[in-house]
Amino acid sequence: MKKVFLKKRLLTGWLIFTGILLLAGFTGKPSLFRQPANFPAPAYNVSVNPVTDAGFVLGKKLFYDPLLSADTTISCGSCHIQAAAFSHHGHDLSHGIHDLLGTRNAPALQNLAWYTRYMWDGGITDLDLQPIAPITNPVEMGDTLSAVIRKLNAHPLYPDLFKKAFGTDRISTALVMKALSQFMISLVSADSKYDKVMRNEGDFFSAAESEGYQVYKKNCASCHPEPLFTDQQFRSSGLPLLEEGDEGRFLVSLDSNERYTFRVPTLRNLKFTFPYMHDGRFYTIDEVLDHYASGVSHTTRPDPAFKLPDGSYGIHLSPEQRKTLKTFLLTLNDTAFVKNPLYEEAGSQLYIK
Amino acid sequence: MKPIIFFALAAITLGACNKKLTGGASTGTHPGQITLAFENSAGDKKVSLNGDTYTNAAGETLSITLLQYFISNISFKKTDGAVITLPQDSSYFLVKESEPGSKQLTLSVPKGNYASVSFMLGIDSLRNTKPLTERTGILDPAGGAEGMYWGWNSGYIFFKMEGHSSAIPDNKAGTKKFRYHIGLYGGMNSPTVNNIKIITLNLKDKQVAKAGPGKSPVVRINTDILKMFYGTEIISIAQKPVVMVTPYSRHIADNYAGMFSLKAVENN
User: Fold this and answer.
1) What total of structural domains would you count in chain A?
2) A347 found inside a domain
3) Cross-chain residue pair A123–B191, CB shorter than 8 Å
4) For residue A303, which of A26, A235, B179, B190 is within the disulfide window of CB 3.0 to 4.6 Å?
């Protein structure tokens, strides 16, 4: 009898406790990582690395800290700028330590929890392993991982921040990467006009946007499907080969069928993420569409998706179609995302108590 | 494609695993202990990092400045046919020419008479794709595995040898340096080159290793790095001074799979 009573009391106590937690969840602050209703389930295993206030704060601090580079000049945020949807504003290629120049365009960081392949060539398939690449790349941050861990352990603030986030001040590779992932997966962009229309939140496409949406569905969606606007496959856009001759995915897979292919980029936030393509060679959407209209080169073996009935490759749009398509693409820009104070380097202290 | 590669490689990796140990490899509670002692040689000379020169099958003179490779997934076969697979977590070793202690792998095994040993040169595909929390110590890209890990194409470097050869035309920096960084576990999303090699040495060719209380046999394994340059394909340093993530790495891996030989079994 006594035992049963105790169990009941425990249960009641537990229910009240969860009730309070839930209430706090609904009435308090917004969650840092969120699942938009028009998105599929995330690919990243959030339950293994749940985003906490302390983890997010730490991840953000690491993201913006040039301490992670060899000469303390370059942070992740140097080439991934919020105002440019975390791409490198206006840069075709990016410069790392000692003004060394990379070979590819810094991609935008958004909705990373839904990705299964990272980098233009998909050489990384686990977000927790991704930061190792820029940190150790000699033309990016040019450091060694052991040096970074050493610097963090010797830092006046970091051990305490790790203790708050993970319960230990022994800073390890895994914890640095987990903190960075907590910040990065929180970069969810799902408040564009398109998203609000799709979620029936009271917004509606104009006639031109609706027409453009149809043009997109017919001509672009096979490689840039909703809602991420990329299928994450490796494809060649038939870009004329430049002198550098970047072989793309081939450098990772060593499969000659994948030579000159790159991971299909998203169409979200195009307004903020120019220039375009893996090497940033096009500065405007019109240049990109001109390329698809008449510039597709056979030397880089364009993807079969571009094949036209007459055997040539490209995407042919009438001037009217191009106009409406561009109007639709504008609905994919998420101004709230690029202005969210939560992501700002020196910004919101909302979650620091 | 992913699951297929996974299962295929998992089968190779774990196929022989019909008995699991519970203790650690070097700190375990088993009464027996076997030491695998690796000795790096270049033909009949000992490898030295101090400028000694050797000649490869292509007739090229070379000296070695760095030599290290991963040995993992170790198993033994007893004379009665039973296979003893070391617990995987304590079965990863980085053999470094520059660190004599790293060349002695002391392994905890049950009492018994052992007829053969198998090990992997490299890191199995599963571990190459595990979360960072399961890559500590010798597998930590910021720790033991620093310099043996590709960040841009996630995966471990299995075998790394660097040095100089007068056969190499001057590079931009004016040095005649060669670099062989061989890895690749078969790919995550699409199949790629798989340079994982499994080596089996018959202890019986010398003598059975007898492990048990008070018995700690030493298995001396010779690693002849000149065999990296021939076997299935003659590798010319002049023509290929740098081999890393390229299809050509296959030839080096095929060659180096044959560089291990049993030198002696000492029953102590």
Assistant:
1) 2
2) no
3) no
4) A235
Q: How far is CA B228 from the centre of its chain?
A: 12
Candidates A253, A261, A263: best to mutate against B (most CBs of B within 10 A) is A253
Give the alpha-carbon dihedral of A265, A269, A270, A275, to 10 degrees. -80
Q: Do A174 and B133 touch (CB under 8 A)?
A: yes
- Cβ of A168 under 8 Å from any chain B Cβ? no
Distance (Å) from the alpha carbon of A133 to chain B's nearest alpha carbon? 4
pLDDT at A17 over 70: no
Which pLDDT score, from 0 to 100, does residue A34 have?
94
Whether A280 and A165 map to the same domain: the answer is no
Please check whether residue B105 is in contact with residue B99, taking contact to mean a CB–CB distance below 8 angstroms: no
Chain B residues within 8 angstroms (CB to CB) of chain A: 129, 131-133, 135-136, 140-143, 146, 149, 151-154, 184, 187-193, 245-247
Residues A173 and A292 in one domain: no
A201 and A142 in one domain? no
Answer yes or no: do B131 and A116 touch at CB < 8 A.
Answer: no
- Write the CA distances from A89 to A78, A84, A106, A289, integer angstroms: 10, 5, 9, 21
Residue contact B131–A128, C-beta within 8 A = yes
Residues from chain A that touch B246, judged by Cβ atoms under 8 A, are 254
Which residue has tokens 């909703």? A226
Average pLDDT, chain B: 89
Please state the rounded mean pLDDT for residues B49-76: 97
Nearest Cα to B151, choosing from B119, B183, B118, B114?
Answer: B183
Question: Considering the entire predicted model, what is its pTM?
Answer: 0.87
Banded pLDDT at B16 (limits 50, 70, 90): very low
Chain B positions in Cβ-Cβ contact with residue A258 (cut-off 8 Å): 190
Q: Give the alpha-carbon dihedral of A269, A272, A275, A277, to 10 degrees.
A: -20
What are the pLDDT digits (tens) for B125-177?
999 999 999 999 999 999 999 999 999 999 999 999 999 999 998 776 678 99
Q: Do A223 and A257 fall into the same domain? A: yes
Q: What is the pLDDT of residue B28?
A: 55
Give the CATH number for residue A213. 1.10.760.10
The reported pLDDT for the residue numbered A29 is: 55
Asked if A130 and A257 sit in the same domain, the reply is: no
A142 and A205 fall within a common domain: no
* A175 and A63 share one domain: yes
Residue A99 belongs to some domain of the structure: yes
Q: Nearest CA to CA, how far is B187 from chain A (Å)?
A: 7
* Consecutive H or E run containing A165: helix A158-166
Instruction: Please tell me whether residue A231 adopts helix, strand or coil conformation.
Output: coil
Calculate how close chain A gets to B107, using CA atoms only, in Å.
27
